[in-house]
Amino acid sequence: MALIYTTSHGDDAARFFRPLVELYEHVYSEPPYEEGPAQVARFRDSLPGEAGRLGFRLVTATEDSSLVGGAYGWTMLPFDWWSRADGEPPAEVREASKFAVMEWIVHPGRRGKGIGAELMRRLLARQPARYATLASDPRSHARKVYARNGWWQAGTSRMPWEGGPVMDLLVLDLLDEAVQGV
To answer: How far is it between the farthest Cα atoms of the chain?
Structure first.
């Protein structure tokens, strides 16, 4: 059966929360993340609030009614930045609105088939924000993927739980012609 991509906003996204939490638990139990029940519960409990944020967008990929991937984020207004950042981003990023990519996950058995790239392309398509930003674990394979696709590091931040990793705060210029096809 074919993959079906769906874009949801706000309360409409709630129908995907349960399978998204299950996928999150599966993906983030792997190295290097090795997250446990406390992190999964934090993710599950944060989803309704995330969906209520300005500019919230969730893109999902399903096959045979099973979720195989998802990506979501919301708008950061000008002068907003990551709350636990080690400093401010460059002025042009700080002063612009940004789309914060909060999660981008694909089932391990479905990676390498272009699903993640299509999720990100759809998530960032037609964004009114000048920049996209996200936090990436520098130990992860995803961090290398971001670098290959034009994301650059603007700082670091520590995850909120005890022993949480230091994350690279990345930025992508959405007006860059090389990114227009994203």
So the answer is: 47
Residue 136: what residue type?
S
Residue whose pair of structure tokens reads 């960032």 in the numeric block: 124
The CATH code for residues 4-179 is 3.40.630.30
What letter would DSSP give residue 79? T
Is a pLDDT exceeding 90 seen at residue 162? no
Phi first, then psi: give them for residue 58, nearest 5 degrees: -120, 130
Model pTM? 0.93
Residue 182 pLDDT: 44
Domain residue extents for the chain: 4-179
Q: What is the arithmetic mean of pLDDT over 94-112?
A: 96
DSSP 109-125: GGTTSSHHHHHHHHHHT
d(CA 15, CA 2): 20
In terms of DSSP H, where are the helices of the chain? Answer: 17-28, 37-51, 91-94, 115-124, 141-148
Measured distance CA(2)–CA(171) in Å, rounded: 32
pLDDT digits (tens, 9 = 90+) for 113-153: 999 999 999 999 999 999 999 999 999 999 999 999 999 99
